[in-house]
Write the structure tokens for this entry.
Amino acid sequence: MSTSFVCEDLVSQVQKIQNQILEIENVLDNQCKTEKKIQSELKSYSLTFIDLYGNRTVNKYIDHEPINKVLKKYKKDYVSKYL
């Protein structure tokens, strides 16, 4: 068994896992949007963003959301509009 074959197989497995994670995130997001009761049952956290002018924005996120996705969404929604 060559090393390149093992690496390709490993990369393939990692990509499958990443796709499964994205699918699960999408299912949870869709359920949370449609059912408010589920939102209160899931663990969540709040992040406070402070811009250059001292304005605070507090957003609530559910634990299954990865921090990099949260930051990308904040940059897309807030930074492009106000700065």
